[in-house]
Design brief:
Largest sheet: 5 strands, antiparallel
Structural class: alpha+beta
Number of domains: 1
Strand content: 25-35%
Helix content: 25-40%
Mean pLDDT: 96
Number of helices: 4
Order of helices and strands: HHEEEEEHHEEEEEEEEEE
Amino acid sequence: MIHRKTDKEIEVMRESNQIVSDVHRLLMPRVKPGVSLTELDTMAEEFIRANGARPAFKGYGSGSKVIPPFPSTLCISIDDEVVHGIPTDRVLREGEIVSIDVGTEKNGFFGDGAITLPVGITDEKKQRLMDVTKEALYRGIEQALPGNHLHDVSAAIQEYVEAHGFSIVRDLVGHGIGKSLHEEPPVPNFGRKGTGPLLDVGMTIAIEPMVNFGGHRVTIDANGWTVRTRDGSPSAHFEHTVCISKDGPVLFTNHFERSHG
């Protein structure tokens, strides 16, 4: 069931998502060679809790009998890691790209957002991958209009990514968000225009293209969480939480702006 939010609920959601944005702003200048992943994770958790929220990812999946609950505040994924990288004492290295995915919960509502950043100076192909992934997200957001179909968003993302020679991950999708971190509907990054549920005022969705430099296939590490490209090619991930309003899409997260067209 798709939950449409009231005006009051939307205002509460804005607060949890603003914390997501603030965490990214805090961490972005600290992404540089020699910084450990646990250092970034600790900084994020302390900031989230200091602002009256809790990390939404930490302990996620605790009801599963198959894999352990996610142990960290952030998902930090490097190069061929697509999503759900677990922070360790490993340090960032010059030329890598790193995705930082943040989730928060405050006053019963959730926020979610991700950004991919270069570590120092990276090569041209990785920069192009990041640029295309970010722009694909905004192409999708442009279609998040009342009366459009959900897969209008999906198709816009897929068309832009594939036109630039990259591939969309098929095994992972975006999602509705609100009182739960993951709600209906699933938001794929590939699809056919004119299909999927109708978008309506008050719907809130997390749109998050995951784009590979090589093929779209992925594998999961032995830890049960970390997803990486099967062919070892780099991957990028950008995510905004978006509200469908009568005036068009409204970004609840604002940790990065459109910069490539």
